[in-house]
Amino acid sequence: MSKEFCTLHLEEDLSISAESWCIECQTFLCLQCEKDHKRNRASKRHPIISIVEYKQLPVLILESSNWCDSHDKKYDFFCHFHDTAGCVICIKDQHKECRDLSPLEDVTKGIKSSATVEKVKNELQNLNDDFIKITSYLDSRLISLQKQKVQMVEEIQCTRKSVNNHLDKLEKRILDDLDTELFKIKSKLEKMLNELKSKKTKLDSLYNDFTKMMEFATDLQTYNALRQIAKITGEESSNIDNLKGKYELKDLHVKVEIEEALRSVEKNITAFGKIIVITVPFNLQLKSLKELQINVLLPIKPKLISTLNISGVGQCKIHGCLILPQENFLFVDRSNKRILLFSQDGTFKRTVITFVDSPSDVCYIEDDIVAITFPEARLIHLVDTEKSRIKKTINIKGYGYGIESDGEELFVRISNQDSFIVLDLDGNILRRIQIPGDCITRFTIMENNIICTNWDTSEILSYDMNGNLLWKFSNETIRKPMGIAKDTIGNIYLSCQDSDKVVVLSSTDKSSFSFLSNSDGLNKPFSLHIDQQRSLLLVANEKDGKAFVYKIPK
């Protein structure tokens, strides 16, 4: 184990063994320097640990410094916009334009007693349990795979044996057929052969008689004998002539015709079989979160980008707003049945379209196309904002208020049916999710969950895609929440009409703070929208024609 030396004496080129470590200053101290450190008014309250305790500290603690590497100064502030700590020189060099600065002491104060500590501890334990469960599962899968291999080898060998047995039976059958057929032929040939041999024996005897007759018989005897011999030879000649058409004298060729299926086995059957891997979805119930974010939610100073005066085009009632990809701003004016387009500098550009029915909410789909709900008319219009025309109308048979889209599907809140519906862009209902609440009208989709506002109960509720309640939240600052939007770091922004606030709620630990208030110009804020790519927040008051664009952390 390496030996540590007093940091202060090393600066004087003296190597004196260190006995302790100052956690705050991150320096090694010898006995004398430790005494001096404890006497010094600036460092007397610094926590000091022994060298033995220091060497037991985890690497992630040792690698975390309290000092700025660039300027050799102690960190004393935290920039929420850049998500980093800095020293006083860093403020001047790198954070001149940053407004989201907090004293580092405020950021870290009470961190060890916060709910985040217990949450991280629980998550570490959950992760450990999950790893044990997964490794145990994988071990069982390896054992199962070996058992499956044995079973498959047995099946292959059994199949091979079955095929062999079947071929053996077929071979025996055809060999038996061959023996039977050859036996029949042989029997017939042998029978004819025996008959011919018998007749030849008689002919041989008759020939001998003929010779003796010619030598010893009288003429009369010869005459009578010739007549008998001629009769016999005539009959036998006739018999021989008849034999030519007999089966037994035909030229027989016995051959075997092998079944074509057997001949083509080698050609057509190129494999004994194939190995198929069937996957089953992972179904272990794990405890850990999809993503653990240490999100100690602290008040952030809002950075105003621009103020829009919508009332410059007349009295209005803004129920929906949208930041378009071209950095234009779109507003849904419910009372005048129109949508208004403003440029990024707050200049009114034009009325995109005026409708017959009263619109409620709006969401972006793709290119220049947006979707707008019309509760009383029970329909959705897909509107081309560039060409100022309705591209498609979808009938939904219900009071549709809030609407969201991922570019391929539409999620719509149907308040009079206590449900959300999911449609494709042709208007076909893909599924329906039952979630009760007449006063749930606005929502956002976060990590495949529906997070919605209930303006009557002043609650924020989270449901899964099967309609199961995951959590709900309320506090005294969230009064009549209407608009809702999410940022990229797990925060939910809420426009609260009765408290004239925009409240930021952490989806992970449910901490919250007031981001904007009536001192920032809010007056019954109804709708808001977040452009996640540019980290912009657009919030609009319902009736006074004021809207504001803010830069938010990312």
UniProtKB/TrEMBL annotation:
Domain of life: Eukaryota
SMART domains given in the database record: BBOX
Domain B box-type: 1-51
Record InterPro entries: 6-blade_b-propeller_TolB-like, TRIM45/56/19-like, Znf_B-box
Species per Swiss-Prot/TrEMBL record: Mytilus galloprovincialis
PROSITE patterns, A to Z: ZF_BBOX
MF-aspect GO terms: zinc ion binding
Designated name of the protein: B box-type domain-containing protein
Coiled-coil boundaries: 153-209
SUPFAM superfamilies the UniProt entry points to: B-box zinc-binding domain, NHL repeat
Keywords for this protein: Coiled coil, Metal-binding, Zinc, Zinc-finger
